[in-house]
Amino acid sequence: MYLVDTNVWLERLLEQEKYEEVKRFLDSTPSDRLFITDFALHSIGIVLIRLKREKALLQFVQDAFVDGAVSLVHLLPGDLPDLLKVVSSFRMDFDDAYQYVAASKYNLVLISFDSDFDHTPLGKKTPSEVFDS
């Protein structure tokens, strides 16, 4: 089961440099094995709206949640002490710590391109590391 970070989804949605890598990962992974945090979903919304890509946002939600079986996970206010501990221990930004704590809480493999996770016990995998394994 995989928690897919914001940057991975955006690579695909914005057809950026690692688009093909993400496409292979998403095409080869059943959507019921994919998870996204509410924070990541809202961040994607912010980016796509800022870029005036409202249709892309609607299509993403349709593909992931309506037609697909991607699960939405969230943290509760009671998870904030754990999040702040991760911020302090690993010098992470709030958004990275949110993903890290959610992956830990739900026992998910974190899929990301962000190297900030490399120096943590949980670590992360890139889409190609999952696809090629």
What share of the residues lie within helices?
Answer: 40-55%
Q: Helix/strand/pairing class, anyone?
A: alpha/beta
Q: Which of globular, elongated, flat, extended, rod-shaped describes the shape?
A: globular
What radius of gyration results from the CA coordinates? 14 Å
Total beta strands: 4
CATH superfamily: 5'-nuclease
Q: Number of helix segments?
A: 7
Which range does the strand content fall in?
A: 5-15%
Q: Please, what is the average pLDDT? A: 96
Physical arrangement of strands within the biggest beta sheet? 3-2-1-4
Largest sheet: 4 strands, parallel
The run of helices and strands is EHHEHHEHHEH
The CATH level-2 architecture is identified as: 3-Layer(aba) Sandwich
How are the SSEs ordered, and which strands pair?
Elements: E1 2-4, H1 6-13, H2 19-28, E2 34-37, H3 38-50, H4 54-66, E3 71-73, H5 80-90, H6 94-105, E4 109-111, H7 127-131
Parallel strand pairs: 1-2, 1-4, 2-3
